[in-house]
UniProtKB/TrEMBL annotation:
This is Uncharacterized protein. It comes from the Bacteria.
Length: 138
């Protein structure tokens, strides 16, 4: 039974996720639409929010330009985009969103331009019959 005082979860919404990656060098803000992405074969599909969050972290680790950044907060210091702490942060933040059954979008600077990660929450009715779900996490 669903608790009326808690937000809906991914299982309440009966969703799974289609993951897409876009690399672009063009004008900022130019990217595909959700409908365009859902019409394509996804890079990966996921049945669990944990699997989708792991994918986001792995893509940030693999494709982020390793710029040095100053850390804010009481500890301060210096970090690097795509370092293990940043990847852990991305996984954790992604999981919070995905556990609700929502879509999640991440954008960052890659070595040759912007990288957009799209993790689309998809209901069975939205899922096209010709989409291959090979490699689904379970």
């Amino acid at each position: 039974m669903t608790n009326p005082y808690l937000p809906p979860s991914h299982s309440d919404r009966d969703v799974h996720w289609h993951a897409y990656i876009e690399r672009c060098c063009g004008a900022p803000g130019v990217h595909s639409t959700r409908d365009e992405r859902l019409a394509q074969q996804p890079e990966e599909t996921f049945r669990t929010p944990e699997g989708a969050a792991e994918w986001v972290g792995a893509m940030v680790a693999a494709y982020a330009r390793k710029d040095e950044v100053r850390l804010i907060g009481p500890m301060g210091g210096v970090g690097q985009v795509g370092d293990p702490d940043h990847v852990m942060h991305e996984r954790r933040e992604s999981l919070v969103i995905l556990l609700r059954g929502d879509s999640h979008y991440v954008d960052f600077r890659g070595e040759t331009g912007r990288v957009h990660l799209w993790v689309e929450a998809v209901t069975p009715d939205e899922c096209k019959e010709d989409i291959v779900h090979d490699g689904d996490d379970q």
